[in-house]
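#data-curation
PF: Archiving a pair of folding outputs for the training set. Convention for this channel: one message per protein, sequence first, structure tokens after, nothing in between. First:
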Amino acid sequence: MEESPTNLKGSRNNIFRIKIKLNPEVAKFIFLFIISLSMLYFLSIRFESFIPLFNMRSTAQILYLFFKTIGIETTTISGYQIVFSNFAIEVVRQCTGIFEIIAVLSCIAAFPSPIKKKIIGISLAVPTIYFFNMGRLIFLSIVGMYYPFMFEAIHDYLLQLTFVFLVVFFWIFWINKVVKSEKR
């Protein structure tokens, strides 16, 4: 007597089950990463005006002052928008670098390491990402002023990808040079 597919130990029901075996340390990292990411994201939204360098207004003002200092005439700054003679840039939350900071801080917080090493990582990550982000905004503004047809491609593809690589590179650098430094 032949068995139908439904009678084979529930094989029909197992077709869509995916079994993933996670190392307990990896599972703990993922759990802590998601918790840290969620908490930091919530705090960044709730208290954005209290984060001095990573809010829209201060990012726009610093960018404006940079261009004014080096002699590039900007027409106006209005809230979060900087208007140049032939181009305008609007600073939104994604332009502040706060999401990249949250990502790298969550990676550092979730990674198993002593608190001293985490503090070193955080104290290196925040200024590194801040200055990279401001450099990115300066570069994008210059591209917008002189090569406006290239602005979207450079913004949406090149610099977004570069920022992701920076976050991953920084985290790996921190693990290899700071966390594992005493083990060598």
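PF: Second:
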Amino acid sequence: MNHFDSSNNISLQFGHRGKVAIFIDGNNLFHAARFHNIDIDYNKLLRVLLGDGRLFRAFFYTGVDAGAERQQGFLLWMRRNGFRVVQKELKTFYDGTRKANLDVEIAVDMLSLAGRYDTAVLVSGDEDFVYAVNAVAYKGCRVEIAGFRSNTAPKLIDVSDYFIDLGEIADKVRKEISHGTRYDERDLHCPMPAPYLQDQLEMQKSQPPDGFEHAMRVVIEAEIEEEAAEFEAASEFIRITDEH
């Protein structure tokens, strides 16, 4: 396991990273950054995570309230600044909280695009992604995790090829104080208590795996079986041809 040295660029430590795909778990990053009292500048974040690699795609996943104008303004700004926005409408739960879970979308995109990029950078601290990260790595791609260490699941750090601690490079990704009206990421998210992600990590340690990991196993195993079947068919064709 390697870690980011804030005095150096990622690419200076590991050489050329090829085509880089960036997957940002917007809700997870927002609350982790808020816990550390940091407003993220997404242009800066994109440059830091890309290093000297070639950008394949930068995806931003978030829940939205379709009728909120300021949310749509922020997402339009993200699209115009190099991000592919993947959104899902917020759902209201019995306790009054509103959220949208895009874990499946992130994991499926990482897996389905593997092979078209060389390095994946997942910006999230969610332990649910451990199985998906392993699956992408098995396809020959380098997988890096970016997040705040205290809000990132240790198991997720352990399965990555490289961990970028955003807390150590906060000055490189922090938003400068701006004057005047501007669409802001905070327009996307409902207020949540500061210890939100820390409590979430403790819950993850004590709870059995949820349906997400099982669903991902089904998706990945089905893909593996399909590839194996194609390989067996090709092998049979070669065997029959050789006999003649």
